Amino acid sequence: MGPSGAGKSTLLDVLSGYKKSNVNGAIYVNGRIRNLNAFRKMTCYITQDDHLQELLTVLENMRIAADFKLGPHYPIQEKDARHGDDKIQHMVAGMGNGECMDWFGDPSKVLKLETLRMKYPLQRPAKENTILQATNQWNQLKTLMRRGIIRGKRDTTLTHLRIGVNIIVAVMLGFLFIEGGNEGSRVLDNYNLMFANLMHHSMTTMMLTVLTFPTEMAILRKEHFNRYYSLKSYYTSVTLLDIPMATFCCFIYTVIVYFLSYQPPEVFRFAMFFTISLLVAFVAQSIGLMVGAWFNVVNGTFIAPVSSIPMMMFAGFGVTLRDLPPYLKWGSYISYLRYGLEGYVGL
Q: 222 — phi, psi (to 5°)?
């Protein structure tokens, strides 16, 4: 077929529709111009490189793939859990003595699972003119959530770092502005504390997403291209999975900062302080997802902090909103930090 670099993989990427940018010309299927949407529904493309979840075992990767593909259009007898497990056991048996089904975290040991999927297909062989449908949204979301929970339990380092960073920063700011909320002469200090809170929630959440999300792009592209799930299901699962940890970290941070800085000991004010902080973190996460989807880790690490500078400028910190030139006032309406700061001050 040709030496390495001759374009074999690129040709297959183009023919399958996996690569569409910087491509010219027309592709014909059975003498007719290819309709890409219809073509993708009738085919499945196995890429050259395996992109798999490294924190899942081989057996778990197979079961997750089966759950994505065994949807409501599959025969009833094929949905039986025992039958599905038997099929997966056949697949992992093709890897050797079966010991590798529990490997994870070592890419060199994760064998060519896509090749085995071809040998033991998880879908019914499509009859002529049959369109392979994706499973329903609920099944996609449920499977993505289950996979995310497994990964979250095993990626303990990142979880501990998130909790640790919030505690350390909260203690530092709390002692730096200690009793700042209880003294009328330190109004400016308390104002600076509020802005520091915003920057902490914004930058830590945004940069975490920018650094981790691009590593998922290869898996996301492959699985979405092969109709494992829709983008709506994927992003919904990402958001839902992060809510508990984001809420927990934000709550710990708020408790430490709020009471060390002697803010008013009122339940309503504490709840509003916590809610504003959490909403700012969620907005920052959404921006991080957008940057991570557009750029790689290197470029995203540069773009994300730079994009935060206008948000800081138009938040009213340093330059009050009434002092902004008329031709720059529009910026204050798109700065989520401005609304967060106004919420803090309004307490």
A: -65, -50
